[in-house]
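Message: Study each token:
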Amino acid sequence: MYDLVQTGKNSFYMACPARVGIVKISDSDVVLIDSGSDKDAAKKVKKILDEQNWNLKAIFNTHSHADHTGGNQYLQNLTGCKIYAPGIDASVAENTILEPVMLYGGFPMSDLRSKFLYAKEADVEKLTPEVLPAGMEMIKLPGHSYDMVGFRTSDNVVYLADSLSSEDILNKYHIIFMYDVKEYLNTLEMIKTMKAECFVPAHVAHTDDIAPLAQKNIDKTYEVIEKIKSFLQVPLTFENLLAKIFTDYNLVMNASQHVLVGSTVRSILSYLKDEGQIEFYFENNLMMWKKSN
């Protein structure tokens, strides 16, 4: 782990839980795709850069989640590099308290203000095509986060951020974080059609054929959707629905999982409500969800 892996003439990544892409833009200069989960990961990135005599010019965050922005502050303070993130994610990457606030729906208790959900703050500018190095293309990948993007490099390596999960993760956790379910599914359908010399998802082994894994992610998403619909044959509060999902999938509840899985379940409820497949009503001051007639 934390080794340098080459995937193209000028494209690399640091092998770690949330892959950090490294793209050479000249003989001596590089840009990063994300910065690792924390200061320790960022130190390992800097060690690789120093060993290769590479100068860091910029960090391009694919989205604002803490495991992708956790090294921003350390690397910016050390090198003075620019940091960019797309759309709404730029605001969250700069004001990192917004991630646990969004997940919790209020001021987050101390259990949620850990590096897992709350990265150190840095100066972040909005990512636009104009700031990218020559030959580097931004790819919109919405759904997992507000405005998540990936990148295609000049040597045809595609970095896919958190747009899909490994088969092992799908089988272990079942419910993958989604902000917008409809856009998440649309993104996966688009990824199925993509061609590249190499695909580098953030949490999955690199591959030259991404379509089979994209389909597995689609299938698992629909499995979870159908399970929720089946549970709502009987009216349930959100908390009771969440408990049934955790029990059925044999998941372990804690504060982080409550907000992460809970946020995704709420997104699925919004998706199904907008599609006319479920509805809600209030009874004894409780919000009840049920499948539509």
Q: What stands out?
A: The domain at 230-291 is CATH 1.10.10 (Arc Repressor Mutant, subunit A).
